[in-house]
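Input sequence (652 aa), recorded before submission:
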Amino acid sequence: MLTLSGITKAYAGRTLFAGGTLQLGRKDRIGLVGPNGAGKSTLFDIIRGTTEPDAGAVTTERGVSIGFLPQESAPAGGETVLEIATAISPEFVKLRRIIQGWERDHPVAASEVRTQPGDVHDRYLELNGYQVEAQAKQILAGLSFREQDFNRPAREMSGGWVMRAHLARLLTQAPDLLMLDEPTNHLDLEALLWFQAYLTNYPGAIFVISHDREFLNALVDSVVEIRLGKLLRYRGNYDSYLEQRAAKEEQALAAYRNQQREIAALQEFADRFRAKASKASQAQSKLKQIERMEKIEAPRETEKKVNFRFPQPPRSGQRVVRLQQVHFAYGAHTVYRGVDFEAERGQRIVLVGPNGAGKSTLLKLLAATLTPDQGERELGHQVQAGYYSQYRVEMLDPSRSVLDEALATPGRVTEQFVRTLLGSFLFRDDDVFKKVSVLSGGEKSRLALVKLLLNPPNLLLMDEPTTHLDMNSIDALLWALGQFEGTLIFISHDVYFIRALANKVVHVNQGTLTHYAGDYQYYLDKTQAGSARAALTAGARPNDFEPGARAKGTMDRREQRRRAAEARQARSRHLKGQRQIVADLEKRIQALEGRQTEISAELEKPETYQNGGRAVQLNREFVTNADELARLTLQWEAEASKLTTMEAECPA
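Predicted structure, token format:
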């Protein structure tokens, strides 16, 4: 469907990729990964034709349509949410405007109508006009829009909701190739689960940039990594890619060390005997042997690891924070009635539950940014609480540079330490001299995290701390929180992040807290959850407890059951397809193994060598088949592993 041949691109003297080659098939599900600044978005731009490569070409089959969702959308105009979602082509938008004008008795510009009304309607029907609107509404509902929002001007909504409307447009358009740049950034958990299930059954190809490991594991069948100027493709999901890359790095390092040992031995012989007449020729031969070698390059570390120790807060008492018989309501909506909660020193508690159930409210009550209507909040001995969102808003000085703001901490830290930490959170080179006032919301979030890590309180309360972070920055945050000696209570939809940190789970639903005295896997085992991500929103119908929760709306039970059934059906179809992939691979491997047996038997016959050409042909076929068997076996292992995971998460 689409081929990249010899793509080369450089910026400011730095080569992003050189001679990059990639093929995308019509059913491919590909994740694009690489460190920040590696060129992921640039590669997307080259494929879309908005950026020209320095060398190479992009070849696309005739008639292939490409849809693209950027990280951030342009400001919304006067169009409604539904108009954005149904804007699948300029022709369609024009026809719809004409028909709507007729239906509302509005005058239509003569320049727009050059055909008879019947022709306009006929063409609109050819484009499935009325079905498009119905499909767009269904997709908008899946992305958490309420029906009353469909005809609402998009400019009245936040940027995140406008992005969802544009995502709905792409899904309604259903291009042959769907290119998504961090599509999960603006989705709540329920919308994300729906979106993930929808994509597993998407009819076209998908090429996605995402920092969400769980999303990539559930969706992609191969990963393309931009590394050291190359496009490297790995078969399997994200976890499979990590395993294959680690094995490849280990092999490369072993090959390099073996060659270095061989070179050292040859050089030692040459140095020892070059002055000895009887051995001089042999010594010279060893030196020439070294010269003729195709040198293996020393493996280079492409990602800087965070490996320094962070400042630690003062030790608190055993009991850190307690809520006793707390009542809280937003107006007429009661969130908690007589709730109790307690955290002890060293605990790392994750709050899970459906959207709108009260997780963020509980965190704010613990942080004292909300005051209970009744009941008490009590801090333990020498406890200092820090709330991540509050910290970002109140503690950043807009007049300072990024570096000066990070250095303005009571702890004793060096500038080198601070700059290293800033680099881990994507503030590199001249970025550290930018004024805080000009930073984006995501950049302010990352800077606030840096400040928290440089001077952490001993009770850390964090609401979705991984938002706006790439994978390397998430790893840096995990490293820091892994060393954190205080108490952590957090909310996150990143399963990888939760698994790495949580040692206790509290499920929040309809004003009730259920405690699980173990890590996230313990919680999954106890609740017998269908999947690790779905368990984050497990519970009854979410109530409209919190401002902004579920677009300030609710779903009835029938709608929940319908969506749950759709998700189950999508998982079942995906599971069936994965089983077929594994079965097909097994058939191909079995056929090749049978052919190899036939070739071996023929090569053992003396008469085969009476015709020299026949023997050569069989040997070549044997070698080719062996290479293909190795490739298919590796692919089968990845697909079989993926199938095992899917079967575990989707039991019959």
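Checked by second reader. Confidence is low (pLDDT under 50) at residues 540-557.
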